[in-house]
User: Fold this.
Amino acid sequence: MNEAVTSGQYIQHHLEHLTLNLKTFKIGDSSAGFWTLNLDTFIVSGLIALLMICTLGYVARNMKEVPGRLQGAVEMILGFVDNAVHEIFHHKTTFIPSLALTIFLWVFLMNAMDLLPVDLVPRALGYAGFEHFKVVPTADPNATFALSISVFLLIIFFNIKAKKLSLFKEMFTFPFGKYLFPINFAFRLVEECVKPLSLALRLFGNMFAGELIFILIAILPWWVQWPPGAIWAVFHILIITLQAFLFMMLTIIYISMAHDSH
Assistant:
């Protein structure tokens, strides 16, 4: 760490985003409030999605009877996700396994950006004139809420598709019967709103905490950083995998609940 910079300034610097004012299209201007785009989150998540699509497409176009390492890894992940889906979701569908695979891989790869050295990307882009750049999209609540709201919209869609008009009966009569319909409806609203909140905040909280710990380790003298950094990196691999798995599994569970009439 540069001795001219205090610990507080170093931490604050690494917690700030590269922003884009959507009103003036000025980079680095966050004065627009709601109309400010975290450009680093958008760029990194988009590049990861593009890399994931291209890699899976390449494997699909070049399938071999004797798989190589890449094909073997993709088949192993695909089998794992497919088994997880069919243990929970008992309806015939090709969309849900595809959705689950996309969520698991995308969230995992975005989480895995936290394993890069703290100063690597920001310092490299600093030479190009970019003062701030955060490389972990899931440490940004805008990204996690975007993911969870997308899942929430799918839950609403499948509720309407599977239950049609009986959905309204369910919302007003369960669990206390039709005479207490205001309480039933209020409980249902709370239940549905908690789903995207819990998905977004769980993922954001874990990844933000992990990122902050890496930053705190980077404050230490260079000869002290390696042992705690290595230990936390190994432990963090479990966290980033678990958070991707939980986001995927909860998405499947919520959509399965939307299909079920009980």
Q: What stands out?
A: The chain has a mean pLDDT of 91. Residues 22 and 75 are 41 Å apart (CA to CA). Residues 7-259 form one domain.
